[in-house]
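Late entry, written up from scratch paper. The run itself happened at the end of the previous shift, but nothing got recorded in the book at the time, so transcribing now.
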Amino acid sequence: MDREEGMEFEFRDKRRLNQDEALEDKQSAQEASHQAHCHDAQCHEHMHPPYENAGEEVVMPEVNFINFVANLSTDAIISLGLVQDPQGQTYTDLPVAKYIIDVITMLQEKTIGNLDDSENQQITDMLHQLRMAYANIAGQP
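Output as recorded:
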């Protein structure tokens, strides 16, 4: 007699939620978190400014390593107070800037041998500029 003949299997989904319920729970949690931090419409406008070009096609840059590192560099430049953030504010947050510079350095180290000469030179130049800007700003009284 074959072992499999008399055996029956029952599959039960033991997950707590189906996909729709999980999405609803996630949205509810996000709304609750937002309401806990923001109590008025002005806060919502600051955190989620309206998209000015609604209806227009947005062209996103190519997804590649250098664009990714350039995005990180932009965040570091904003944290150094050299340019305004998307809401038009300028601030200096040196610990965040240092962290981002360290992340880019780690990426450079982890990608040794995997970048072409142009990519390697671009990330080296970005890091040099960020480190010089950090040193200048951190050294100010």
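The CA atoms of residues 25 and 31 lie 10 Å apart.
(Scratch paper discarded after transcription.)
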